[in-house]
Design goal:
Length: 286
C-alpha cells in the first residue's frame, strides 16, 4: 500500500502545472477516493488538497523568483484564473505576494515533496478485531467543531465542559450496546479533511432507549468495523493508536475505510494518567 501511495505522489509531481485528478490517484492506489483522502491526511498530517496546493505554490515560487515570465503567465500555468487569485494563494503560503517577492527577492516557504516509508519497530503487536454489526443508534449531545490536526481541540474541550455531570450520568445510564460507555463520535467530516473545516462531534452512547429531550440521534447503518484497543499513558496512547492504525495496520491489511462515524471509547484510570482506549472505524474489504 505504501508503494502505491508513493506512486500517487509521483503523479502529483507530474501534474503540478495541470489538473490533479483524485479519482486517478485513487485508481493508482487501488483504493477509493474516500480512503485515499483519509489515509493521506492521517499519514501526512495535512489534507491531500492542501499538500497539492502547497507543492504547486512551492514550484510556482521558484518561477516567480526566476523573474523570466510575467506573473499572470505563471498564475495561469498553475491553475489560477486571475492574478488576484494567484496573489491571494501565494501570500497565504509564502507570507508575501508574488510581486513583492520578485521585487525584493524575499525568502519563500518550501513544501518538500513527501514520501511515505514504513518504520519497523517490532516493540508491540496491534490488538484488533473485525466485526460485522447490525444497524445501531447513537444518542447524545451534539456540537459542530473545527477539525484540528495538532494540539488540543479547544472547541471539543469547551463542548464537553458545557455538559453537566448530571446529564452525563443520565446519558451513561442509557448505554445498552457495544461499545458500552460514553463515546466520542466524529461524523460528517469534510471529504478533503481540510484543517479548520467543521464536523459533527457527539458525546453519545449506543442505546435502544428513547432519546431524552435535548439530545441528538445518529442512526448508524449495518456494516463492518475494525476495532482497535490499546492501554497506557494519556494522551500518548490514544495519539499513537491513531498513528499506528493508519501508518501500519491499513497498509498491511486488505481493508480500507468507508464513510461513517469514527467512534472512540476511553476508560481512564482513577488518577486519570492512563486509560484503556477502543477505536471503532467503519471499513470494507479492498
Amino acid at each position: 500500500m505504501l508503494d502505491r501511495l508513493n506512486e500517487t505522489l509521483e503523479y502529483v509531481e507530474r501534474r503540478l502545472d495541470g489538473t490533479v485528478d483524485v479519482a486517478e490517484m485513487a485508481r493508482i492506489a487501488t483504493t477509493s477516493e474516500y480512503h485515499l483522502r483519509r489515509m493521506f491526511s492521517a499519514l501526512a498530517g495535512m489534507p491531500l488538497s492542501e499538500y497539492v496546493r502547497r507543492r504547486r505554490l512551492t514550484v510556482a515560487g521558484a518561477d516567480v523568483l526566476a523573474g523570466e515570465e510575467p506573473l499572470l503567465d505563471i498564475a495561469v500555468r498553475y491553475g489560477y484564473g486571475s492574478g488576484e487569485a494567484f496573489a491571494r494563494a501565494f501570500r497565504a503560503v509564502h507570507g508575501v505576494g508574488p510581486g513583492e517577492a520578485r521585487r525584493e527577492g524575499a525568502a519563500l516557504v518550501s513544501q518538500p515533496k513527501l514520501a511515505f516509508r514504513l518504520t519497523i519497530e517490532g516493540s508491540s503487536s496491534m490488538r484488533y478485531r473485525v466485526v460485522d454489526r447490525e444497524a445501531f443508534t447513537l444518542v447524545g449531545f451534539k456540537g459542530r467543531v473545527p477539525l484540528v490536526y495538532e494540539g488540543p481541540n479547544q472547541a471539543i474541550i469547551d463542548f464537553a465542559r458545557g455538559i453537566g455531570q448530571e446529564a452525563k450520568e443520565e446519558l451513561a445510564g442509557l448505554a445498552d450496546g457495544e461499545p458500552k460507555g460514553i463515546l466520542s463520535v466524529c461524523d460528517d467530516l469534510d471529504p478533503n479533511r481540510t484543517e479548520g473545516s467543521e464536523l459533527d462531534y457527539y458525546l453519545a452512547v449506543v442505546t435502544s432507549a428513547p432519546a431524552p429531550e435535548g439530545t441528538a440521534v445518529l442512526e448508524v447503518p449495518a456494516g463492518t468495523w475494525a476495532v482497535f484497543t490499546a492501554s497506557g499513558p494519556v494522551p500518548e496512547t490514544i495519539q499513537y493508536l491513531w498513528r499506528d492504525v493508519y501508518g501500519e495496520w491499513f497498509p498491511a491489511n486488505p481493508y480500507r475505510t468507508r464513510p461513517g462515524p469514527e467512534i472512540l471509547l476511553t476508560v481512564p484510570t482513577a488518577d486519570g494518567t492512563e486509560a484503556d482506549a477502543e477505536l471503532w472505524l467503519p471499513v470494507e474489504r479492498d
